[in-house]
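Run log, item B.
One chain of 86 residues. Sequence copied directly from the ordering sheet:
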Amino acid sequence: MLLTAFAAIVAWYVWKLALESFTTDARAMSILRTPLFVPQTCMALGFTLLAVQGAVIFFVGASESLGRQALTPLPVLQVEDLTEGL
């Protein structure tokens, strides 16, 4: 849940930044003069998807735990799993 909250807060502020860059026509200080809202929108979209994914993981785990009437243990990757085919 902490991941979801962090990603949602960062996404909120990056979306605000991208909108401000779009409305003020902010551009990069390079010879290409790239509009800054383009990379900022990509970053905002990434943080938004991260927040959605975190929420989905949380709610799927919560629903599985409620269905079993107990906390569902998290699968832990063992070293033997990584060296199985060697």
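Observations after the first pass:
- The two ends are 37 Å apart (CA to CA).
- The chain has one domain: 2-79.
Flagged for discussion on Thursday.
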